[in-house]
Amino acid sequence: MLxxxxxxxxxxxxxxxxxxxxxxxxHAPEEWAGLPNLEEKRQAYYKALEDPSRELLGQPQIxxxxxxxxASANADVTWQVLGNTVVMGPLNTPDVESAVQDQGLVAxxxxxxxxxxSTSDLLEVVPxxxxxxxxxxxxxxxxxxxxxxxxxxxxQYERNQVLDIxxxxxxxxxxxxxxxxxxxxWLLIPDNATQPVAVEFTTASVTAPGVDLLAEKLPGDxxxxxxxxxRGLHISNQxxxxxxxxxxxxxxxxxxxxxxxxxxxxxxxxxxEPTSEFECQAAFELSPGGAIAITNASCTPRNELFFDxxxxxxxxxxxxxxxxxxxxxxxxxxxxxxxxxxxxGIKYIRFLITACRDTAAA
Length: 362
Hints:
Elements: H1 19-26, H2 38-49, H3 59-74, E1 80-83, H4 96-99, H5 105-115, H6 119-123, H7 135-142, H8 156-168, E2 173-177, E3 183-188, E4 198-202, H9 211-216, H10 222-236, E5 241-245, E6 250-256, E7 261-268, E8 278-286, E9 295-297, H11 302-305, H12 337-361
Parallel strand pairs: 1-2, 2-4
Antiparallel strand pairs: 3-4, 3-5, 6-7, 7-8, 8-9
Helix pairs in contact: 1-2, 1-7, 3-8
């Protein structure tokens, strides 16, 4: 699990003072193509984001990560899992202009709506580092530029170091992330490569709004606006973005075994009420060995994901170990769920594995 907040993190890049971003703010979209030195300013912006002195992890943590991955590879584990608090995929701004270019007046209406969003409304949804104008969103979308510079996009030198570690991994690396309020699946591809080195599963927030909040502030039908934004995301993030859901709140449930990794992307119908329907809307699978590839899959039946601890559906109950494990005498009869995960989880799992081995040997 990476620590990306306290130990080594440099302050995020000051987007508002960058000449490229300032130029986008100061000129209307129809003027951008004719501006002198805009591309030079854009390349200077990228160099600033790639500055080797900008740290998110720090070199001691990167060295430890390299050592840990080498050790897990030598241990011949099936999956090498990297916990990561922010999105490692590029997450470039949605190219809404390309997404709606075939819609004539609708396209212009949509763009005018985005450009009319007030600064106060904009800052409720996106970081202050986006600048003081919604033009920045349209401009960075047009040129497929990174959008969240307080995440890995703002620390690209170290990001490339981590991707290099993943590239050298031999045991099916998988990255888990969040903190972006929306759900994604990524194929992580280094800047100097064409093939992915790992898959990243990004979970949505449980209740906090995402891009949907911005869409609600725009004129027009919210559902249509979100569809355009989602198409724009895939345009500006190809070929790395495999899946996205920027509309709903939810969670990802991972079922991991030696021969298959299965991820169920589940969402609530609404996060505005105390109770809500909750269902899986997309599922993906990975197989160990060979080229890194994501397969679209069927959702796991709900009764196979959720069960009462020690109940009939608990896979670690009576039926565990092929029916040989009948008594969990060392485990308390009642365990608080979070207590189990945080304080007793490792002991509990180790006990069950040991018990399985003992009964199997007997």
